[in-house]
Amino acid sequence: MAVTDGISGGFSAGETRRYDLDWLRVIAFGLLIFYHIGMFYVTWGWHVKSAYAGPAAEPLMLVVNPWRLALLFFISGVAVRFASDKALSRGRFAASRAYRLGLPILGGMIVIVAPQSYFELRQAGGIEPGYFAFWGNYLKLEQLYPMITPTWNHLWYVVYLFFYIMMMAPFLPMLRRFAEGRGAKALNAVAGGPVRLMFLIIIPFVAYEAFLAPHFPTTHNLFWDWANHAHRLTIFLLGYFAAKHVRFWTSVDRALPMAAAFVVLISGLRFYLRANHWDYYASVIDGPVATVLLTLYAWAFIVMLMGAGQRFLNRPSKLLTYLTGAVFCYYILHQSIIVIAGYYLTGLQLGAWPEFMLVTAITVVGCGAGFELFRRIPGLRIFLGIKAPALHKKPSAKPAPVAA
Fold it and tell me: Are 22 and 16 in contact (CB under 8 A)?
């Protein structure tokens, strides 16, 4: 069975396939795509905006905002553990990640992401029409626009993941020994039961939010995004160490009812407070209380999804097989499709719901068509995160683990 490379592929260890994690990865990317469609319609800053943008969709966006990216980084950490444990050497593992993640980053920044900057500037009235004239300037390092170009925009997740993998690659043998020894004991201590799993895991994240976030707001600048790095690297490493930790996953299953209760209660509280004198309540609970509650909510939602996944999604399907190979390509393409479609459609004044339905349909169909096209072009598919079709050969010998 194939293993995932950190983004594309499936989760397997020996003969045990984690279909639930495959599904959660697909779900996480799918939510991210629809979240970015939502960003076109809310009042928060984004590349382009609908003429019908307003606060109506913001409560729904706030349901997924605290945990959507944390779930992706956690699953990526799990994926890296499975993949690195089966790698023939550290060098080959690093080279394979550079190939499967580095090339999509490069192609994405040069070609896929560029239209986002162009249409953002066009809607703001910052440039004259003419995409190719803009693109020539976009590729220069002279910084001719009020934004950094070339840029990675939504691909920052892939950039950060690639950076984390390259940073840990030289230490993989040591990390694996630690994960199987002292790391396993430490994880037992903090996640060896549902109560500990729910309340101890969140402590470092509360600390990051309290002490780092006020000084380092999220920028997606790789070298000056320390609060964001602290959050993402920690949840990534948690996924790495928890990947094969049986007691952790047992605790996740046992914690499912508790996690679901926290999600319902904290969500209900948030909706109530936002609907009833929010300014007053925000001044009362703002600070440490809000930080703890929001962090607990985010982790509870992730635990709820993982627990439900273990119980109800750990089974194969043809749809899952297809989406597992397609969803990274969808992720790379989706935001540029949303920006382009949204820019042109909002100028037609079709009405909020017709416009939303068209933007959504064009995004979904565009992602699907892009995947079907590029998967058939060997020289280009790797730049869209599409793996080559597997050659179904009988394995000769079990590969050795990463060498020390």
Answer: no
